[in-house]
Amino acid sequence: MAKVRAARDGEAAALTALVMRSKAHWGYDAGFLAACAPELAVREDELAGRRIVVAENGAGRLLGVASLEVLEGEPGGRPDGEVARLGLLFVEPSAIGRGVGRLLYRDVLGRAAALGVRRLLIDSDPHATGFYRAMGAVASAGAPPGLVRFEVAPAVLAGWARAWTGGVPAVHVGNVAEFNAQFADPSVGREPRAAHDYACLAAFYSPYPAALLLPRAVPPGWIRLVGRQLDWGPEVEVHDGLAERDPGLSDAVRSRPELARRVTGRGLPLVPWGRTEPYGRLAGLPWRPRDLRYESKSAAHALFARILAGGGHPGIALPAQWRAATRWAAIRTVRARARAGLGTVLKSEHGVGGSGTRVVTPALVRAAGGARAALRGLPRGPLLVEEYVQGPSRGPRDLTYDGFVDGEGRPHEVGAAVMEVDDGAYRGATVGPGVVPAALEGPLRAFGAAVGRELAASGYRGWFDVDFVVDAAGRPAPTEANLRLTGPSVAFMVAARLDVLRGAGHLVRIVDRVELGARLPEGQVELLCGDLVEACAGSGAVFVPAIVTGAFDPAPWIGVLLAARDAGALDAAEALVRARALAVGSGFADFSAVADGSDAGDGSDAADRAGARPGRRPAGQSSKSKGERGLRSR
C-alpha cells in the first residue's frame, strides 16, 4: 500500500525524472518535452518551500510526487488571499490507475484546508482533466496556454461532525428494526426484513466508521466500493449477518461476548440508529423510556405548541391536531372536513417513513365512495387527525431540520434539507448549500434549534430531526419529530465527508428506492454499482450505493446516495441511475430457475449462479459461525 511523506534532501533529481516520465506517458514528442523540462524540474532548494510530498510503496520505491505552493511574492509563506495552487501532481507511469494520484491529491487538499486555503488552483494537462473532474474540482477560467484550469475549495470536517463522534471513528449499530419494535403501534410492522434493509445505512451513521454492526449479511464488494468512494482505510470492520430474522441486533451482539468486547472495549463511540433498552445494555448507558416521549406524534405536536406559545417564531405555522377516540370518530371528522372542502391527514401515534400516515382529500373521499372507504387499510388503533396544509404554488413543499444533543446535553445544529414525500411517504432528501430557500431556512433553523433545547432539557441525548411542510403563505409548519437517525441525516454525513475529500459545496441526495429491472446475482449488483460510479464520475457526480440488500428481494431495488456541485447535475445523475437500474437484466437470462435450486449443482456454485440473497451461505457454514467470524477488514 502506498503512503505519503515529505520529500527528502537529495531526491530532487529522482523526482524530476519521475515527472518527465509521467509527462511523456501521454505521447508528447521529444521537442515538446524538452521545452517543458525547465518548468517541470524539481530543485533541491525548493523541496520545503513548495511543500513537495511523494508517494512511495512499502519497499520505498517512488510512485508519485505532488506540491502545494503559495503564490509568488507572499511574505511569511502564507497564501496570498488564501489562494494556493497544486504545482505538481505526477504519477510513475507503471503506477497510473492504482490510486496513487487520488492519494496525493487528497493529501494536498487536506494540507491546504489545514493551512486555511480557500481556493486551490489547478492548471491541468488536457489528458488529466477527467481525473480532476472525477476528484471534484470545478472547471474555471484563467489557465496558461495549453492547460485547463480547475478550482477547488479545501474544507476541514464540519464542526458538528467533529462534535458528533468527538472527531474519531465510531462503531455504527444498525438497530433500525430494534428501534421500531419498541413502540406498540400497529403501523410499525414486526417483520424486520424492510428495517434490516434500511440498516445498510449504518455505513453512514458518521463520516468515518471504525466498525459496522449489521443484522443482514451484505455483499463484501459493496463495502469495498463505499470505502473507495468515501476514502475509508482498510481498517474498517464489518460484522454482518448478526440478526437475519430477529429485530434484536444489540442483544445479538451481546450474545457473542468476543464481538461485544471488541466493539465496546476500545473506547470508541457507539452510534445507533436510535436508543433502545437493549442498546443501552450493550453500550452501558442508562435506559429511560421517557427520554423518547417526543417520538410520539401527539407529544411532538404538544411540544411544538408550547414553543410557539412562548413567542419568537412568527414565521412558523402549526397545523391543528386532534385525537380520534375511535375509528368512527375519525371517519366522522374526515367526512365533515371533506364536505367543507378541507383535506385531512390521518396518523398513527408512531410510524416510520410515512407508514401509518394517509392524506385524505375531498377528491379521494369522493373517489373511494365515502370517508369510511377512504380510511380502509390504515392500521387499527388510535388515530390522530390533523389538518391538511395546502402547499405553495412553487418551491419546496417538505423540509426537515437535523440536529443532535451531545452527551453533555448541548444541542448542535446540523442543517436543513428538502425532502421528497409522496402521499405522506418519505422517498428521499437533498442537503447542501442553497437547497432550502433563505426565506424558509431562517425560520426553520430557529424553530429547530428551539426544539433541540427542549429535547436537551427533557433528558434526550442523540440525533433528532423536525419535519415541516410549507403552507400556501410560505411558512414552515412542523409536523413531527424523529428521535433517531434518518435518511436526511445520512446525506448530511456523506456531504461532510465529501467536502473534506473533494472540496466544499456538495449537494447530496439520498434516494431511498431505485427500482431494478431484474433480480440480480450478487456479482451483477456489484458490477452495476461499479458501472454507475464510473458513469456518474464522468459528469463530475458521485455515486454511492447505500442500500443493497433490497436488490435480492422479489421486487428488487437499491437505495443510493448521489452528490454533485449543482442541482442540475444532481438531477441528471439521478435520471441516469434510474434509467440504468431499470435497464439491468435486459442483457442476460432470467435467474429465477436456478434461484429456486432447480439448476443447482453443489451449494456454493448455486449461490454464485443463482443470485441468492447475501445471507445464503455454502453448505456447512452456519449462521452462528458467520456472525462470530464476522470481522472482514476492507
Task: Walk me through this protein's architecture.
There is one protein chain. The chain is α+β, with helices and mostly antiparallel strands and 634 residues long. Helices cover 35% and strands 22% of the residues. It is built from 22 helices and 24 strands. Helix 3 (100-115) links the parallel strand 4 and strand 5. The model is unreliable at 73-77 and 589-634 (pLDDT under 50).
Offer a concise description of the structure:
46% of the residues are buried.
Properties at a glance:
single chain, 634 residues, alpha+beta, eight-stranded antiparallel beta sheet, seven-stranded mixed beta sheet, 22 helices, elongated
Q: Low-confidence runs (pLDDT<50, min 5 residues)? A: 73-77, 589-634
Beta-strand fraction estimate: 15-25%
The helix-and-strand class reads alpha+beta
Count of extended strands: 24
Which oligomeric form is depicted?
single chain
In which order are the strands of the major sheet placed?
A: 20-19-16-17-18-21-23-22
Share of helix among residues? 25-40%
Shape verdict:
elongated
First and last CA, distance: 13 Å
- Mean pLDDT metric: 88
Q: If helices are DSSP runs of H or I spanning 4 or more residues, what is the number of helices?
A: 22
> What kind of sheet is the major sheet?
8 strands, antiparallel
Q: Any idea what the radius of gyration is?
A: 27 Å
